[in-house]
Amino acid sequence: MLVEIMAWNIREMVDERKCHTYPMFAPFSVEKGKPRNGTKRRGSVSLNRIVLSVAEVQRQRTESLTKFQIPLVSSFVLLSIVATILNPVTAAKQCDFPAIFSFGASNADTGGLAASFYPYSPKKPYGETYFNRSTGRYSDGRIILDFIAESFGIPFLSAYLDSLGTNFSHGANFAVGGSTIKTAGGSSPFSLGIQYSHFERLKNTSQFISSKGGVFATLMPKQEYFSEALYTFDMGQNDLTAGFMSNKTLQQVNASIPDIVQSFTSTIKNISNFGAKSFWIHNIGPLGCLSSILTNFRSAEKDNNGCAKAYNEVVQFFNQNLKEALAKLRKDIPLAAITYVDIYSAKYSLFSNPKKYGFELPHVACCGYGGEYNFNSSIGCGRTIKVNDTDKFVGSCERPSARVLWDGIHYTEAANKVVFDQISSGNFTDPPITLQMAC
């Protein structure tokens, strides 16, 4: 964001001093990312237009001094400034987030639903790969949020709703399984609006607790962490799934998307009003590739990779709306670093080329029971059922590390790690920056 502001200021300076005759200073639009006056996009300007010989720079500089009274600036400095603008990744400093605040649904839940509705919480074999017990995560081990925290040396986030052994000194997780962006339709009452109110309460109350001192004060985030933290979002899938599972047509689900996205970005803006500056926002993954969708909508047309095509198209429509809304939000909050994360493409690659990542049977649930995709919505992972008058435990497959889907809806730890590695690299983000520079 700092680089973009610099680029804008330099562009204005160049325009005012009529230096647009310099090929290396051809004006470009930073805000819209579009060329002006026929020049190329930011970040792809031809080297022939940038790398001038020192003699040519000196000649043009001398002419400009005579005609426009431009202050003498070293050609090396000029070239360094342009290189900085055109390569913001190398120019940006590496972030050092002291805390993370997470909002979302089951893909980001670290125990919120388990603390709120324990009888319905995920039981073992959930968590068996890494934690050797169920922690309320919807996976056999770590989720993407855990890998994000680890990459900054931050402890795994405590669920805000969990009162047992929680520590919020490095942030909090407001995500709860089944949650939606809008208030209606999800299986959880903890919509994004409710999660926002929980965040507001933590921010206000934690400072009072800290001021009292003692052991509880050590479990609260510092005041400055609320502005210095990374804010992550992984939400929206339940809004669409609720539409799929109701009597709505896919066209009706599509029609609801702009309103859902508007609610999403409004909440992000509200959070920014509390001083938040760094936002890492996942779009929705390919729901049409999940065992749950493929089982419930067997007649859906499949694409070349075995995914329900029409359902993924709805997801892509949501993602495009979200991307455009975040582009507008950047103008409304110019000092914030807002990163759109294309988790859809990263996850879809696991279904389009599973062997590349060491996976097999990408659409088949590792922990489930029955049918082509080993999924039955009435017989969940970790349940015990009667088969021929014999109790049968619905447990894990033999090698979770070779599977993409854990329970037919959520991903295995192995898949989560592959996706994290992809999105943190900057290859799936807009702007194209690494996670370590998302500030």
Automatic annotation (TrEMBL):
Signal peptide: none
Pfam families recorded: Lipase_GDSL
Species: Psophocarpus tetragonolobus (Winged bean)
Family to which the UniProt record says this protein belongs: Belongs to the 'GDSL' lipolytic enzyme family.
Keywords in alphabetical order: Glycoprotein, Hydrolase, Signal
CDD domains the UniProt entry points to: SGNH_plant_lipase_like (cd01837)
SUPFAM superfamilies per the UniProt record, alphabetical: SGNH hydrolase (SSF52266)
Molecular function terms from GO: hydrolase activity, acting on ester bonds
Protein name: Uncharacterized protein
Keyword Hydrolase: yes
